[in-house]
Amino acid sequence: MTHADTETTQVLWAPARLGGIPLVHRLAMAPMTRSRATADGLVTGLTQSYYAQRGSLAMLITEGTQPSEDGQGYLATPGIHSEAQAEAWRGVAEAVHQAGSTLVIQLMHVGRVAHPANTPHGRAPLAPSAIAAAGDMFTATGPQPMPVPREMTESDIEQTIADFRRAARLAVDAGADGVEIHGANGYLLQQFVSSNANRRTDGYGGDIAGRIRFPVEVVTAVAEEIGADRVGYRISPGSPLGDIVEDDVAEVYGALVDALAPLGLAYLHVVHLGDEALLRSIRDRWTGGLVLNRAGADIERRAQDVRDGLADVVSVGALALANPDLPARIRAGASMNEPDPTTLYGGGERGYTDYPRLAA
């Protein structure tokens, strides 16, 4: 597989700005869970190497990082809710800045997509309603069905908003250029938005205004804490991940985007699943920076989205994972490494920091 640098892709190399985050070009790394943190949620020197290797990408959005112990769902994912975890991230931020890029830490609370065996405290997961997600969660003893979560009280909701706020503060104090709030892929914030995961009858459920309330309150608190121009928000309209069903995608995301737009965020990160009319509608409603993740598309198609005004920046996942020097490869029209699926989650250097560079 090769990607040539053509007239279409030239648009990617223009500088950009997402809120308070300056970008040397328009190609960013999408957030990807790699499950290589320590048991107590610390990123390591290997993590520093992994992100620094990809420093020729303009913005590196990190793997999902839990803002609290309750936010963890998977084994070996990092946290940013303790001083020690924040200090470990400081080393990553410094390494990325030395490599010439910017770092955005993604704050991910998984909600019901979890198993108590994977958390430090072994408590039942939190969710908008006591409805289990179908499917298994991988644990140290093998796959186990995801359990029925505990329906969050209003006190739990207040605490979770405070957790996001504190995590964002820890992230920017550790040197991150911003945070991205994960409202996609079936995790907690999307669970509130979804009609099958959220069956609440209080002010955080029911109609669309109730279902989008929690995500909007999380974003508002984080923006107040660190400045809206350092905050991104990720959505995946219509995604079925995490056993999510969204019956009213266009209406829900129209309302959510309209509620977030006045906050002046750095960017909205859209995981695009093929509904072109919805993407255009979101672009028309959103006045700030838009990062587009058109999964599986080639570089030319992604660049065309920038040319067409659908995106300001494009994010790439697997291509960046397997090609640490991706911009150089595109510019050279060089062949691409393919990602090794057996090393995506967990392990050490293999499939993480050992992908060959073009010079090699």
Automatic annotation (TrEMBL):
<feature type="region of interest" description="Disordered">
    <location>
        <begin position="332"/>
        <end position="352"/>
    </location>
</feature>
<dbReference type="GO" id="GO:0016491">
    <property type="term" value="F:oxidoreductase activity"/>
</dbReference>
<feature type="domain" description="NADH:flavin oxidoreductase/NADH oxidase N-terminal">
    <location>
        <begin position="12"/>
        <end position="334"/>
    </location>
</feature>
<dbReference type="InterPro" id="IPR001155">
    <property type="entry name" value="OxRdtase_FMN_N"/>
</dbReference>
<dbReference type="InterPro" id="IPR045247">
    <property type="entry name" value="Oye-like"/>
</dbReference>
<dbReference type="GO" id="GO:0005829">
    <property type="term" value="C:cytosol"/>
</dbReference>
<dbReference type="Pfam" id="PF00724">
    <property type="entry name" value="Oxidored_FMN"/>
</dbReference>
<protein>
    <submittedName>
        <fullName>Alkene reductase</fullName>
    </submittedName>
</protein>
<dbReference type="InterPro" id="IPR013785">
    <property type="entry name" value="Aldolase_TIM"/>
</dbReference>
<dbReference type="GO" id="GO:0010181">
    <property type="term" value="F:FMN binding"/>
</dbReference>
